[in-house]
């Protein structure tokens, strides 16, 4: 459908049924206006072309903090905030993406070379996705897109992974008949972020964004991880998932993030292994006295966190299957304590006077709320589980400290990376 026709159908509320499925009935009006705005932007910038609609959710890490990059286990959930795109297939070998609030990215994709891109940019991500497709023998080509995202940069909800998966999702539909396996979309995103963007990461963020739902993922075989969707309804148990944005930003913390997988892998290397998942836990524990002088104490504690966190994820998977929320929350608290004490990613040593995450956790615990650091850490967000009757009290307490709208109450979204029209989700 041409963009003007799509705009007409949104104005006539013909997409309201699909919007209700994606966002819930209370958000339909706001989402309709959001889509109308991005379609109008596309018309203004690229003209009245044949277009398609795409959506990729953000994700919340439930458990398995900093384990995926060492082939660990995680629990993660797609959430009901997303990046959306209006996109048109183009014949030229150029990808143009105009993201709301940013300059247009224009990427020539006929020659791909990571040494020729500017690290840390959206253009680098776009080029990296194309090279990942090329290496796998998938087709790729030009397109133009306008995007807008509710997955804020630095929010710990995986804005970069959602963007990466969005690029792959568009290419899959336009050039591969939507036949690229979901895990390959995730792996293309990881490749792009590691090689082109220049940031080390695991595969959890991209996988959760691409698959959707509440997931258990085992990355023992990183090329073909085990992905299991769990049937868990938090709201049905009388709780809401809240992500509190403490106002810190991830922008200057790449060195901090990189130190975690680096130190874990240093420990693994001392056993002749590439990642900690290949190391026997008891063997590691028995040699701590010897390892201290080689890896350093922090690296050892981070490795200990990895082993315990893997066990916790497995335990949480089992108790969720039994509907045992009490034990699930106990493990959430254990995970958060381990991240704070042993992984040490709740604040950066570069600026010890700013500890927004620590403060948010302290206030949340004082209010009797189950909570933990969320995502990469160091700045950004915490995760809290709020009883329905405490939502107003919690929101006021935290927003008095961190500002209006710092509390995001989210729902698990069953849909991952999709294309959709007024009748169907693909």
Please tell me about this protein's structure:
The model has no long low-confidence stretch (mean pLDDT 94). The protein folds into two domains: 3-231 and 413-420, Ribosomal Protein S5, domain 2 (2-Layer Sandwich), CATH 3.30.230.10; 235-410, 2-Layer Sandwich (Alpha-Beta Plaits). Strand 9 (370-373) and strand 10 (381-387) form a beta hairpin. The protein is built from 14 helices and twelve strands. It is globular, with a radius of gyration of 21 Å. The strands form two sheets. Strands 1, 2, 3, 4, 5, 6, 7 and 12 form an eight-stranded mixed beta sheet that branches. It has a four-stranded antiparallel beta sheet with strand order 9-10-8-11. Helix content is 44%, strand content 19%.
Features:
single chain; globular; 426 residues; 2 domains; Alpha-Beta Plaits; alpha+beta; 44% helix; 12 strands; Ribosomal Protein S5, domain 2; 14 helices; four-stranded antiparallel beta sheet
**Number of helical elements:** 14
CATH architecture of the largest domain: 2-Layer Sandwich
Average pLDDT for all residues: 94
Give the C-alpha Rg: 21 Å
H and E order: HHHEEEEHEHHHEEEHHHHHHEEHEE
Distance between the termini: 16 Å
- Weakly predicted, low-confidence segments: none
User: What composes the largest sheet?
Assistant: 8 strands, mixed
- Choose one word for the global shape: globular
Give the percentage of residues in beta strands. Answer: 15-25%
